[in-house]
Amino acid sequence: MLRKLEEKVDAAHVALVVIDMQNDFCHDEGSKAQDGGDVSLVQGIVPALQSLIDGAHEAGVPVIFTKATHNKWTDSDARLERHADLTDTCMEGTWGVEFYGVIPEERDLVIPKARYSAFHGTNFDLVLRTQGVKSLILTGTATSGCVESTARDGWFHDYYIVVADDCCAQGSLERHENSLKAVDGPIAVLAKAADIVDAWKKA
Questions:
Q1: DSSP assignment, residue 13?
Q2: pTM, rounded to two decimals
Q3: CATH superfamily ID and name for 5-21+38-68+107-202
């Protein structure tokens, strides 16, 4: 049982997951902002997130980016009804689907996904188990959407979950904070990027 943060983020068995840092969710000209959403809080996490990614690379920790990608084959009527205001968001082949602020390197893995959780309908779990991963550090956007969904699914799949709370965000600070409270304890451990990087440096 891994009880301490240092044990859960051990480079030998952890992966850093960067969730949906894409133009449509983060850029001033993306569909979220154009629909009136506030993207400033998401933009604000970029420096801490880049520092965490750099720290992961230095420690030899695998970095996995998820990329929300939609097309006519995956846009069910139910999904379109839920997202009627953002029907053009992250459509395959558009500028909006591209990464914002933090860019995957050649050594990183990009996993496309069509639903909130990185586990749903993807090979994410297969990749993690193949790489001997036991713990996940989750970052990105939106905290109460794709980050929390991935955290819960990861917990259901018996991974240890760490949420870097200064490396995830969404337009509503209240919903962000409520989401963190919901997963803190039974599902995830909350940690700062600097503390995770410090644990890697001390290992």
A1: T
A2: 0.93
A3: Isochorismatase-like (3.40.50.850)
